[in-house]
Each structure stands twice: as C-alpha cells, then as structure tokens.
Amino acid sequence: MAADGAAAGEDVDLKTPPPSLEDGEGRGDPEAAAAPCPAEDVGKLKYSVIFLCFYGFMTSIRPGESFITPNLLSFEKNFTREQVTNEITPVLTYSYMAVLVPAFLLTDLLRYKPVLIIQGVSHVVIWVLMLLGTTLLHMQLMEFFYGITMACRVAYSSYIFSLVSPALYQRVAGYSRSSVLLGVFVSSVLGQLCLSLGNISYHTLDAITLGYVSFGLALACCLPWPKRSLFFNRTKRQEAAQKAALSETGEMNPTRAGLSSAACWKESIFVQMLLEVGNMVKRPNLRLWSLWWIFNSTGYYLVLFYVHILWNKVLPSANYNGAVEAAATLLSAITSFMAGFAKIRWNVWSELVIGGITALQAIMLLVMGTTGNIWVCYSCYILFRGFYQFLVPIATFQIASSLTRELCALVFGINTFLGTVLKSIINLIFSDKRGLGLDVGSQFRVYFVYFTLLTLAYVIGAAVVLVRRCRTQNRGQQEEASPDGLHTELTPVSTTSEAEPLSNSQSVKA
C-alpha cells in the first residue's frame, strides 16, 4: 500500500553514497576532497544546506499517508480488502521496479533538481487521485505515481553531497536524515491528531495533505541548482582533461596517442566501477552485507506495504495508524543511533548478529500474523521496524567504508534494484490476483517462513565462520607449541586479517 511504503521515509540513504570516512586520504576523489565547497561563501553554503533540510522536513509531512489503507476500505472509497490486497497494492512494487533505474541515472545526469520536481509533481498527482478518484483504475494510478516518488528519493539523499566538500559529508548526511525522520514523525502525529481530536473525514485529511505536498513542490522549484554530480558531470570534466592530455601526447608521439585513444574506454569511470563491483562480490564482508540489504530489505518493505491491511483485518474499527507509525519512527531513530555505539568484531560475529536479529523479526511476524489483539500487533510492528533499523547504519558503514563514493552509489543502487526485483517476484506469486492471490493473513505467514529461512542461512554461515576461526586458532597454537616452529617477526599475515586490500589498493575494515 502506498501509505505503508511511505512509512519507510527514514530510509532515504538506501541508494546513495553514505558519507566518506577518509575522503582525500587515499580514497575517493582526492581533488574533490581538497577542493573548496562549490558554494561561493560559507554563508551561501549554510543557506543551501538549511534550505534543503527544511525541504526534506516539509516534503515528509503528509498527514494522510498513514491512513491511505483505512481510507480505501472506508465507506468513502468503499473498496474491498481483496481489491486493496491483490489488485491495488501490488502496483506499487511493479512501478517502483520499473522506475528505479531510470530515476537513478536521471538523478545524476540532470543534477538532482529536475528529479525532485518530478517527485513533487507525483506527490500532487497522488493526492489529487486520493481526493477525487473513485474507481479501481484511479487507485492503481495512485500506486503507480507512488512508485515514482519512492524511486525519486535518491535525488534528495544524494543532492546534499553535491553542495559541500567531502570533509562535511558525514555532518550534512546526519542533518538531512534527521530532518526527514522528524518530518515523518510530525506527519504521523499530525494525521492522528486530525482524525482523533479533530474528528475530520478522510476527504478533508486528503485535502490537507494535498496542500502540504503542493507547498513541497513549490519548495522544490526554489532549490539551488548543483554545479556537479557523481557520475556524468564528473565524467565530462575528466574527459575534457583526458582529451587535452591526449592532444599534447599526440603532438609528441602520434602512435602512442592512437593507442591511448583506443584504450580510453577501458579507463572510463563507469567501466572501472563495474570492475570494482565484480571484485566486491569476492569480498566476504561486503558480499554478506549486500545480501542482507537485498533479502532483508525485501521482507521489510513487503511488511510495510501490507501491514495496514492486516491491522484492518485484526480490528477494522481501530484507527491508530498515525500514532503507531510515529512510535515506530521514534524507535527506529533510537536504534539507528544506538547502532553507532555497537562495539562488535564484525569480521567474526556479523552472521550471528544478523541471524539473531532476523530470528527476532521472524517471531514478530509470526505473532502479527496469528494474534487477534490489535495492540499486540501494533507492538510487534514497532519492534520489527526497530530491529531492522538497528542494522541499517551498520550495513551502510560495512559496505561503504572501503569504497569510493561513486562506487557506493552504484553498489547501493544495484542492491536496491535487486531487492525491488525480488519484491516484485514475491508480490506476483503470493499477492497479485494473477498469482495465488493470498489474503493478508496468509501473506504474513509467508513472510514468517521467508525470515525463518533467512535466519537458518545466517546461522549456518555463522557456524561455518566460527569453525574456520577455531581451526585457524588451533593450528596457530599447534605451530607455536611445536619444537620445530620458529616464531619470528616476519610471520606472514593471515588471510583472515581484518584489513584486506581491494583491487583499487583500498582496504576493507571489518
């Protein structure tokens, strides 16, 4: 459901490069790290960052979003639960999958702002359809445009990195994420207050939300236009420099210049990044967290898409969606913050920690799918989201700490796209009326089985890692105890070292 997808508004960094941790120190773009901020002065830079954070906050305030499912099932819209579950909601996932890659490429090619405007227009269309639409086709179009807004989130989360120097990435990333989290929290509380205390109709709530998203579209039109981006515009500058260098080389050595021109495509940024992605698959740590991102985020978003329908089935008269989403957002922010202080040897315990948290999520899904108590269902949903959000910043760091920011964008984009494809496949098989067309209760039992299988895979992986480590330690102790074993300072470094070089001479730290 569109509203359920919107509840994930805090995940704005899923497809974009997180802040570099050592920019300008042997990683990323050294010239960019040393270069001054693109803004003309500090005052203009502060204004741009503040305005962008204000934009992120305001565009996250959509009071009617938490109540789209109750709205569709109410007498005002009068759709059946089967229509919402099997015909309307699946369109969101298909639309998201179809638009994600074009949105990712256009964001960088057009330098962010046009994509944000497209997102704003799509939000306006969504709420016009919610306000005036009455047919099944109208609601399916609403879900289609909601998929566009989800795909366009990449523009906001990467926009802010184009405004400041790499030294400020970590700080401004925190600002932008906090502003969106605060906006989602305020939006959920405001929607709940409007319905509970204001006693307004869903139609009026849709009109209020339309006003907010229209203001967000106006803000998007006022955003400053960035002068640079990660891929295309940066590539153009490098190509210009390369052409100049080749022309000088050609004057001195025409033969060598011809060979350089023929091999130029092999040195392009995009080709190099694809090669690095292939190398990434060979790194156990990066492979593990990328697979977690793909498989666990798939289950997470499927739950978010359908949980409001489940609540309506458990207790149709309950209408606390806004309060529950606000509590879930608050707990997600707390667990994300706590994750930054987790002191764990991730090269040893990653699989076990992931398996334990995934098992807890599976238990929450089992309870949600079987309980008849709406408050228990609410509580399990809040905990389910909190568990997932605890691992998000850890996964982000584990994937990004050894990659350039350009490669980060590509890797997160690939992970998100593969997760979206998997969501579409599961939707088509279990949710869509062209597949099994299961009711929402049966779907949550499927999600429980899905997370249980993931738990088993992670636990088996953890067992394999621990057995290998124990064997390595025992072998080392035996060699030290052996009378023939000579201990010197030139002992070779084990292949399980916490710092392993990447093919681009970088290192990944567990």
In short:
72% of the residues lie in helices and 1% in strands. The protein is an all-alpha fold and 510 residues long. Strands 1-2 form a two-stranded antiparallel sheet.
Count of strand segments: 2
The rounded Rg comes to 25 Å
**What is the multimeric organization of the chains shown?**
single chain
Amino- and carboxy-terminal Cα gap: 37 Å
Largest sheet entry: 2 strands, antiparallel
- What is the strand content? under 5%
Work out the helix count. 20
Strand order within the widest beta sheet: 1-2
Which ranges are low-confidence, i.e. pLDDT below 50, for 5 or more consecutive residues?
A: 2-40, 245-252, 254-262, 485-510
Mean pLDDT: 79
Order of helices and strands: HHHHHHHHHHHHHHHHHHHHEE
Structural class: mainly alpha
Q: Percent helix among the residues?
A: over 70%
Q: What global shape is seen?
A: globular
